[in-house]
Amino acid sequence: MDKEKLQGALPEYFAPWVQELGLAVESFDGDGVTLRLPQGERLSRVGGMLCGQAMMAAADTAMVLALINHFGEFRPCTTVQMNTSFLKPLSNQDALVQARVLRAGKSLAFGEIDLRGAADGKSVCRASVTYALL
């Protein structure tokens, strides 16, 4: 796997509105990937806070890329369950979205995602997910 292949998966497999999030692959390893979600006016609420909808979409997208990294190729999948906890607001900084595959079997995959401030490293959102592998 390489960074360019993971970055190239964004326009290939995701809807145009997901691409508008501006996600960029920061790093990857054997267990997962880390994306950067740029903070900006289009994704912010009052007070410059990154909106929860953008965080959830970024988390879901990061996990699909983590599965691509895990399998070495894209496998069709769909989100079955996503449990998200917002820990604190994220204002005036990008988010780092770290997705890790916990287990991937023949028909289901399980993962966890941590979103944290890119500048301060503080966790702002945690999600656990289940995917059906099609």
Automatic annotation (TrEMBL):
Record has Hydrolase as a keyword: yes
Location of the Thioesterase domain: 52-117
Keyword Zinc: no
UniProt xrefs under SUPFAM superfamilies: Thioesterase/thiol ester dehydrase-isomerase
Gene Ontology molecular function, alphabetical: fatty acyl-CoA hydrolase activity
InterPro entries hit by this protein: ACOT13, HotDog_dom_sf, Thioestr_dom
Superkingdom assignment: Bacteria
UniProt keyword annotations, A-Z: Hydrolase
Protein family membership: Belongs to the thioesterase PaaI family.
Identification of the protein by name: Phenylacetic acid degradation protein
Species of origin: Ramlibacter tataouinensis
